[in-house]
Amino acid sequence: MEKLIIIADRGRVRPVKVKPAGDDPQQKPHLIEESGSTVEMRPLSLHQAVTDHAGRFPQGGAVDRRAGMSYGEEHHLEEELETQALKRVAGKIGEIVASAGYPAWRLVVPQEILAALIEALPPAVHRVLTDPVAGDWTKLPLVELEQRLFHPPKGGWKH
């Protein structure tokens, strides 16, 4: 079983550690979350990234004739901000896994960013990743996380 589980989304990284059950048959594995271990890294919105008004450029027309002005385009700025946010999250995950000594670990992230985030992980961190789970669980209490991670339904979780 993994000793480290990292739950993340576009702007939050929440590491939790698994404490295995002891010798007592009534003990069960449970999760431990260190105070202050959740890291908030809010991605920039388009409004925050662009600080001035859109550029204006001459529209087409005859060379010797003046025409109206058009507004500049954002040139895929939203996609670039998304990519940068995922790189920051992947970098933070890399730091957490490296500081733990590269144990086998599990990742839980929303389905829409799962593939991109896994691709953005550092190679050494990616190698020790086991069984990623799709889900937006960053705000769930520990009790519910334990239920979902240790006792998933037979058909798997529907997210």
Key traits:
159 residues, 19% strand, Nucleotidyltransferase, domain 5, 6-stranded mixed β-sheet, two-stranded antiparallel sheet
Which secondary structure elements does this structure contain, and how are they paired or packed?
Layout: E1 4-8, E2 12-19, E3 30-32, E4 39-40, H1 46-49, E5 56-58, E6 69-71, H2 77-99, E7 105-109, H3 111-120, H4 123-127, E8 133-134, H5 142-150
Parallel strand pairs: 1-7, 7-8
Antiparallel strand pairs: 1-2, 2-3, 2-4, 5-6
Helix pairs in contact: 2-3
Description:
The strands form two sheets. Strands 1, 2, 3, 4, 7 and 8 form a six-stranded mixed β-sheet that branches. This protein has a two-stranded antiparallel ribbon with strand order 5-6. The chain has helices at 46-49, 77-99, 111-120, 123-127, 142-150, and strands at 4-8, 12-19, 30-32, 39-40, 56-58, 69-71, 105-109, 133-134. It contains five helices and eight strands. Strand 1 (4-8) and strand 2 form a beta hairpin. It is 32% helix and 19% strand. It has a domain at 4-41 and 89-150: Nucleotidyltransferase, domain 5 (2-Layer Sandwich). The chain is elongated, with a radius of gyration of 22 Å. It is an alpha/beta fold and 159 residues long.
The total count of strands amounts to 8
The helix fraction, in percent, is 25-40%
Beta-strand content: 15-25%
Low-confidence stretches at least 5 residues in length (pLDDT < 50)? none
Principal-axes shape call: elongated
CATH architecture of the domain at 4-41 and 89-150: 2-Layer Sandwich
Radius of gyration (CA) equals 22 Å
